[in-house]
Amino acid sequence: MKKRRIGFQGEHGAFSEQAVYQHFGAGVETVPIKSIREVFNLTEVGAVDIGVVPVENSIEGSVSESYDMFLTSSVKVVGEEAVRVVHCLIGHPAAKLSDIKVIYSHPQALAQCRNFVASMFAEPRVTYDTAGSVKMIKEDGLSGAAAIASQRAAEIYGMKILKKGIEDYGRNFTRFLVISKTEGKRQRDSKTSVIFSVPHTPGSLYAVLEVFARHKINLTKIESRPTRQRPWEYYFFVDIEGHHRDPVVSKALAEVAGKTVFLKVLGSYPKSKEELA
To answer: Could you tell me if 91 and 112 are in contact, meaning their C-beta atoms sit under 8 angstroms apart?
Structure first.
């Protein structure tokens, strides 16, 4: 039986790949992709069977590129996964902590380890990926350089962990969404993600939220992003409990459609293990 090809942003050993294995198990083929935009695009055209993208971190907040891509992409959200992120400072096998003058990583990882990087008096340098940073300093033979990435990245590229658990806050989690060309199977314990925008008038957001409250539909998240079309106007990304085909949810969304200038259902998917626990 052919393995499903799961696309993720980064190189092998990235936390996004960890999310793939955590969600699907080991029996899949992971496909490294340079950017989040490409994960969406390749999933949309069927070049990979499924994509996995980060949407928010418990310390640094939202991953704006993912949210922006949901506005224009036709993919459906079919699952979610929360990954405990443990950052490691990784260098060459002969390196010592005192040798490090430059630290490479993805901007989110550098931000999550801001205090540690400052304590090292090292120069932070941004790259496109955590594991990709480890691969780069190995292949380029960069002396006096280290990368912030996962323990697995160090193992894959044969590099040395100089210090483990360097994130500023211990409870560091990243939430990932699983995307597909087609809608997922209906599940009993589901949640639904939607995007909407409202007229730029007093009470317009309240009018939408009141609909969910009146139908006794719980909101588990609300996030705003600029529309980029007019200053100070926003799209709202909302997660609600229930499947969009459930009668109560379907009725509420139909009513919301009449109170918004834009409404898009991103998909319904099973609640995460953490929520069901």
So the answer is: no
What percentage of residues in the chain have a pLDDT greater than 90? 86
Domain boundary at 145, 180, 215, which? 180
Q: Are residues 129 and 264 in the same domain?
A: no
Give the residue numbers annotated as catalytic, written as ranges.
174, 176
Please say whether the beta carbons of 156 and 43 come within 8 A: no
Q: Are 156 and 23 contained in the same domain? A: no
Query: 45 and 176: one domain?
Result: yes
* Sign of the Cα pseudo-torsion (210, 211, 214, 217, in order): negative
Q: In the prediction, which pLDDT does 57 show?
A: 92
For the chain, the average pLDDT equals: 93
pLDDT tens per residue across span 206-264? 999 999 999 999 999 999 988 877 777 889 999 999 999 999 999 999 999 999 999 99
Cα separation, 91 vs 154, whole angstroms: 8
- pTM recorded for the entire structure: 0.90
Structural contact between residues 213 and 107, judged by C-beta atoms closer than 8 angstroms: no
Domain, as residue range, for 39: 5-85+172-180
Cα 199 from Cα 21, distance rounded (Å) = 42
**Whether 58 and 109 share a structural domain:** no
> 65 with 176, same domain?
yes
| Cβ-contact 6, 48 below 8 angstroms | yes
Token pair recorded at residue 143: 């002396």
